[in-house]
């Protein structure tokens, strides 16, 4: 038998020879183990002392001693060949993580060094060999357990340095004694005197007070109670255990309740080992039975508190009831340390050892029963300058680049998981072009922007739909587009009944799609003042057939038809024929379908008229700017959206219940001494004001007074605005003559834009001022009143060409409260002269109807001076804004010099010249316009004052015919048959007859709903009021179409059907009457015929009043 070595006692494995060196048959001392270990250390990624790394293991003996768990290196310990090479240079690590308590499938990513091994042994009382692998997760656990590895590095070095010489001297006296022939081999541990590493070890274990520097001075105030020296205890344990028990390292010198948990585990382990060895010596082979016999009586006498037992039962009940694994581990961690694994498995059937280990690890990491630590909330440092951010956002959010859709929503998700629903937004240009535009805009204004990557991230955060088209977003166009969609559904429904064949269905659906696209794009490009196609001729479409003064007679015949304009009428005619001739539907169903088609046809026709009127009214603006004289001025007026108070640091209580500030913008466009167009903007800021005609009249008079003082050359002005009720009213027209007399500036004409097509230069100036106010707040300012608004707009360099004043309306000066103007809704242009007023229904159509000034004065009383109160007067401006109109040229731009001169180019002819330059990045957002600009200011001027250059998406058939005719006429060898063919095409007569004045605004007909419809709606409204389950207007409109009486007959005829908007308006009037206590619940329940008549009469009176107000 091979002799037992000292190291073998610690590793508890049999001694023997090594397969690597079979000739070595004797024991050697550790100090004789001096083979080169640098290659071994390098293969394990341990420090070797090379490349400026400090080696923590110097010799082969140190490496073997530490892997055996003897960190107190004793050079005189004997070792056999097997242990020498198994723990030395031929030791190989396992492929899995060796950290105590490791769970999961994490692969080792790092090597355990000697200091780490020493730290794990001191804190976990488990040996992990130097060179073993450790996973990333266990590295984090190790860092929590051992926050400072340098402590163990220092302790390990001090143990080695301080004991080398001492152990050599005491080796012979206190070394282990061996006998090679006796089976009762044992060893005697020396008495360790003045071992300095004890202090280091005790400091790490936080047990400095428990240990001493030497055995003789190992006790403090407890020294009188310690009777047996440590050496004698170790010798006794070695004798009883026959070398199977490792030496006891220290004796406790303080109460158990005060020691660290790791120290308590070590003491408990050593005590358990000692008791087991002693019992095995007394009763060999029966130590476990003897242990039960000894401790059974004591266990029986331990009366566990009843509440602890009840708590354990409760925990077990909750554990079995829950299905959440995290909660299971949380509950199990509360009792995992109190019971053994076998006891826990007996209490919880099916519980695995893995879950017990996980629960104990959970308890060590998070605490028994505690919740898992949530991830710390992320705090973002704002590295963007707020002023630059607001500048970029103001540009990106400009209405020229985005539009809100009338339907659809979009979801924004924040980092904390919250979701925000926003309306669907249409972005008119792609992100790259938008960023290039913004950078060019900043260069133009000498502003340093954010980086390009940051700008792209901002756009990606503000998600929006890609532009498909820019029309269909106002009410009239949206109704026309939805009518096409409704018609598509109708075609699909009748096709499902086999009324249409598949080919017919596909053809009709294609026609609907093409008609819808044509209305959105190319139709406006076909419209001309004089045209042989009746659908394109402005003079024919806007001439009033009943009034010769409102007509522009055409000097040509309308004998051309446009195949694209005919698409919609043709498909309507075809559908009507198919429905009328089919036997699939009964008469009621046919009436319903024909009524739906009639409604759709009416909406599309209104859409078409709306587009034509928009083109014509915009022509008036262009003609005025091109022919403006030096003594004349154009004033464009508009109310800005109310501005809510804004604070740099806004509390929640400051945000709710805010009331916005009203502000009115008047842009004055004129020509300077050089004949160039310039503009000045007058902004009036108010706190609380009613936006009515008198407020507009007061502002207009104040603007003209300031113009008279600052620009005496101006003697005539032209007014332009949208169709808001405060502008489009006879009350304001009555006051204009008096304003002209008091200001000595004659108001020559007032033009209105087409409804919902009145985008003006005011919008751009409003956007500039809003951007200025946002930047002011972002830089630390507060806006709490109109004075703060004024200071914000004027901060820094202010806004070019803008004057700002804070004002109040003097309502006591209002004298006009009613008028007798007729047909106000149909008037779009007014001309004011000293002796008369001329009105038109469309710009430039006819000479207009004249109303003598004597009759105008009879329509109402005179309005004296409005006396607007100015609390903070207008500021002086440094420079006026400039307006550039494109010059009319016969030939397209041919060189880059022209591009730089005019700052504009067309995509069709100038794009090749600009391909090598990225300067022309601002594209016109108008559908069909081919203009490009180098500067943002030029794009704004073009949108507000320029002429759009259109390019057709596709030529119509009659355009192709004209081109063919031109080619034939230029050909010398004219063939008669070609000429006849073309002439026949030109002489085609349009089957779809178009009436004169078809595009004029139609006055709203006051249609009285039938008594049956009103009664039915009142019944639905009453049900909603009494039960709380209110019916929506769309549901009510559908019920009117589908309701039947007891005999199964339809309750209402198609001519009685109502639109959703009509039902909503009727319900709102009923709700108003209900709030005014004119329709209480009792009256609803006990409504007799007289009461019902009174209520209906009141509703009808309100309907008439509402229609009158709409015409004013």
Automatic annotation (TrEMBL):
InterPro entries: Znf_C2H2_type. It comes from the Eukaryota. Residues 888-912 are annotated as: Disordered. Residues 924-948 form the C2H2-type domain. Residues 894-903 have a biased composition (Acidic residues). PROSITE patterns: ZINC_FINGER_C2H2_1. Coiled coil: none annotated. PANTHER family: C2H2-TYPE DOMAIN-CONTAINING PROTEIN (PTHR33845). This is C2H2-type domain-containing protein. It comes from Mytilus galloprovincialis (Mediterranean mussel).
